[in-house]
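Fold this complex.
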Amino acid sequence: MPLVIERMEGVRSAALTWLLPSGCATDPAGIEGVSTLIQELLLRGCGGRSSRDDADAFDQIGGSRSASVGTYAMVVGASMLGRNVEKTLPLLVDMVRTPTMDEESLEASKDLAMQAIDSLKDDPQERAMLAARARHQPSPINRSGLGTKEGLEACTREVVMGHWQAHALPKGSILALAGDVDGSAIESQMNALLAGWVGSAPTPKIGPVGPRGYAHENDPSAQVQIMWIADAPTEASPDSILEKLLISVLSGGMSGRLFSEVREKRGLCYAVSAGYRGDKDWGTMTAYVGTTPQRAQESLDVLQAEIDRITSPAGAVTAQEFQRAKIGMKSSLIFSGESSGARASTIAADIRRLGRPRSLDEMAAEVEAVTLEQLNAYAQQRRWGSVTIQTMGQQGLKV
Amino acid sequence: MPLVIERMEGVRSAALTWLLPSGCATDPAGIEGVSTLIQELLLRGCGGRSSRDDADAFDQIGGSRSASVGTYAMVVGASMLGRNVEKTLPLLVDMVRTPTMDEESLEASKDLAMQAIDSLKDDPQERAMLAARARHQPSPINRSGLGTKEGLEACTREVVMGHWQAHALPKGSILALAGDVDGSAIESQMNALLAGWVGSAPTPKIGPVGPRGYAHENDPSAQVQIMWIADAPTEASPDSILEKLLISVLSGGMSGRLFSEVREKRGLCYAVSAGYRGDKDWGTMTAYVGTTPQRAQESLDVLQAEIDRITSPAGAVTAQEFQRAKIGMKSSLIFSGESSGARASTIAADIRRLGRPRSLDEMAAEVEAVTLEQLNAYAQQRRWGSVTIQTMGQQGLKV
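Structure:
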């Protein structure tokens, strides 16, 4: 397991991100949702301590820990004072290696997981996002992470425990710490705590891409949700930095094109944004508009027009926009460099996607090296390909 | 206007919070919502620059700014690199002193404000919170900040501009900066930028407290929202720190009583929390549960039982809980001390509520000075008084 430790000057806090290869994409057919239950059960007792005693042990050192299920990984996170890292690590290792997962906690966790599925009814934006992803990405990375009611129901204690033991293994795991930390002390402590922890988890098989195209779901809510997804470069691709700058021109800062054209100039919607996610084997460009039924069609039309325009000669990125996008990205890097939590999380994500962490300086240099000519050459040949559009509201739109 | 500047070591960022005495409580009868429109209009051009050019000016220096309407104040905020503070201040002063507020922007802002009111339909938690506050607090500090459709409709450009000019004045304003900043340079720059800015705003008249008690609103959502509000000490009261520790025992960290009893042990709800807000002339203790219709009654019963138990001899705070609450609060202070944004915002709030800012060390010493005996003596005599309970869902509960 790669262990990367970054000391940050001027902070007293420390943060940890531990990725374990047990994301929702690893849930076997028939027990979809097992990862969601594990996420809850990791916080309900371990190392022979009850749920309450374990929470109390963290609270007694002023630290906090979390578990959240991603597509590929279970993300165990912690934040604490740097001087308490040594006391915190054994608690986190217990969470990962010896969770209790008792029957009573399993039942309570199932109830909460079922409630989470039910509560989606009240969250049309989240539902639209999940529906769009389900139709865009290949199985099983198109999953919601919430699981299914049938899958949750089928999870016995043996099944849940067995799944975690087969996946929470060092090969495929990544551990990153950042902040007020002492690298060599942590390394020897972790080596001792993880003695005897061996093995590797199976990786999920990726199916063909989803059906994509347009779909609408009727929903009685007062708003209309519009989600738009296209494929984009992987994080490791040399095009990744160009895609980031392009999306920043569309949606970064306060003068991005989408905000100016869709929200400000025309008052069409209360929310509009676009984002890029570069993963290891895929990337996506996602856009979102939340608006009223009366303005939904025009909002979608203007959104699509702006997305298309940036790849046309008439919509080429201007020198001013380019400057703005670069400054915005470099400023964000500096801000994130002041947060131990943001650094630990970025380091872990870099290792998973690129095989190595980038320093803040390296990331700033990547931004700096791009020229306007390169960006526009990239934009002019960018084709959005087979996109997915999902709407949710009182009636469908014309795409 | 008080100007407080706090230099933080080890950061390159800087943040600013500027409170102007123009919160929604100052909206005159008949034009409720004028502050909401101003919040939007401050970001749509000033100092002779168009909306787009103004946004671009911030983006060009990698800074960001915001305006948000509170009960008492319009909160203008900015974050930037410390080296760009000098370039940012004139832009912020323009926002406050010379917003354009043109007709076209006013119309777009009205549309967005109307959409915000409509979108409440899809957010039962927010609606429950607003309904509880409306019945608990005296007018006009019981307002939502969204305004009313009639009030928004009645806002002409003259009305909006006149309201801002009568309220965005130095007496009652507070400006705080924190981060990588040079105090004396900022002070002389601000003195120059604010030359000729004089006057004081009228303060809103406070009416009698609301009707309080229990109310239910029918809502077709899949969840039930439960809000609970009681009066609590003001921030300046010596009891404020005791109330904070008490609420921390109930709801702080991961082993707080509400989380343990309501969510974990019984799996009754997906969300439960309690919080304290100490203001200048009032304080509130607020509790929230989000759950399913089947579990709503039991959730409310357990919530109420835990709130009552902590004031009874049988529910006295234990030494372990006390220790945990203190450590949690002191750790949070250290974490917040690493964020320039959190510091600027706390300094401004302190000046408004206490008349002076507290240092992080002073706040830590306040926590440290409390003994378990003091806390339990406070708890045993704490009476919740005339509380407000608001539920929202498919049917009412028994309180």
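The radius of gyration of chain A is 22 Å.
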